[in-house]
Specification:
- This protein has one helix spanning about 55-65, and strands at about 5-10, 15-20, 25-30, 40-45, 50-55.
- The longest helix has 13 residues, at about 55-65.
- Strand 4 and strand 5 (about 50-55) form a beta hairpin.
- The chain has a single domain (about 5-65), classed as Roll (SH3 type barrels), CATH 2.30.30.140.
- The protein starts with a strand and ends in a 5-residue tail after the last helix.
- By secondary structure, it is of the alpha+beta class.
- A 5-stranded antiparallel sheet has the order 3-2-1-4-5, covered by helices on one side.
């Protein structure tokens, strides 16, 4: 089973961005997603952003991951 996790864009670089997942921050390849802005939410799978997400949907999904103990 593959799992993609929503994260919030904190900083944007050329083809990568710093993305926040709860208390964790990682540099993620964002070259597949166009028109990103700081504060956008992206769906991340295997170190790559694969799509943008609406903030509400991202927050709900993150709550599910927290409830399951997958995020702090």
């Amino acid at each position: 089973m593959c799992v993609a996790i929503p994260g919030k864009i904190i900083e944007i670089y050329e083809r990568e961005s710093l993305v926040e997942f709860g208390k964790i921050r990682k540099i993620i390849n964002t070259s597949l997603v166009e028109d990103l802005k700081i504060g956008d939410y992206v769906l991340v799978h295997v170190g790559c952003a694969i799509d943008k997400m609406e903030e509400e949907e991202a927050r709900e999904t993150l709550e599910v991951f927290k409830t399951l103990g997958m995020l702090e």
